[in-house]
Amino acid sequence: MTALHVSQRDAPQLTPKEIATVKKSIQQFQLGEGSRGLRLLQRAQKYADLVDDPFFVPALDLFIKEEQQHSRYLADFLQSQDIRLLPKHWVDSAFRRLRGLAGLELSLAVLVTAELIAVPYYRALRDATGSHTLKLICTRILEDEIAHLKFQSSMLDRVTFGRSRVWQGVLTGLHKIFLLVTISVVWTEHCAVFEAGGYDFRRFKSETLREFREWNVSRRTLPTQATVQSNAAVGNPARTDAGEGRAVLRKTQHEESGI
Q1: What is the model's pTM?
Q2: How many domains is the chain built from?
Q3: C-beta pairs of 96-104 under 8 Å, 24+ apart in sequence
Q4: Which CATH number covers residue 42?
Q5: Is residue 50 left, alpha or beta, with left meaning phi > 0 and alpha meaning psi from -120 to 50?
Q6: CA 182 to chain centre
Q7: Range of the domain at 132
Q8: 9 within a domain of the structure (yes/no)
Q9: What span, in angstroms and rounded, lies between the C-alpha atoms of 222 and 230?
């Protein structure tokens, strides 16, 4: 999909009240979307070499570049409104440190958590101001996040291929606990945007957990199809799934329901 053009010379579109509501929040998300993912790509390369998967790293690199594009959208919008960019923030630093200490699977799970949170956040931000440009940015990011969640499902399924259902269920439960903690942190930092967009904490939590449930359903259905195809093709589940994962990321679908 063609990148959205956001001019840094756009006329001011936010009222003083709207700036007070969304400024710090957008600054934080702009910073978080801009990770280079160097350590993640290094771990991914080790995994790709182990399973002989030539598509894994290029697909993950494409995902990271799309996230960086989101950061540029938000940066250009902030600069057009004469709002400075943040060099760092404690929440972003904590997530980066956690990913740095984690292995490939946990790093991907942390990324999924951020993607799940982003869906209700950008819905709220889209409705929090009257800015047409900001609404377009949020809509574009939401469209991308739908594809990203499907992509992350494919990536994690390749990394965890062959794991028992019992152990996977335990890890899913731990992931949910981490998600619940993250929901509380994000609400504390960004409640003004959520409330301006018509959300209370209960709605934010409910929508995020619904996204988590739907994402897990997709994880339970995709592996079966991929395993059948890979066994019939070359007997290498990682290689066949990788091509599908890259296709999922590149195929951005506009699903009006939920966006």
Answers
A1: 0.81
A2: 1
A3: 96/35, 99/39, 99/40, 100/39, 103/43, 104/40, 104/43, 104/44, 104/46, 104/47, 104/159
A4: 1.20.1260
A5: alpha
A6: 14
A7: 16-250
A8: no
A9: 12
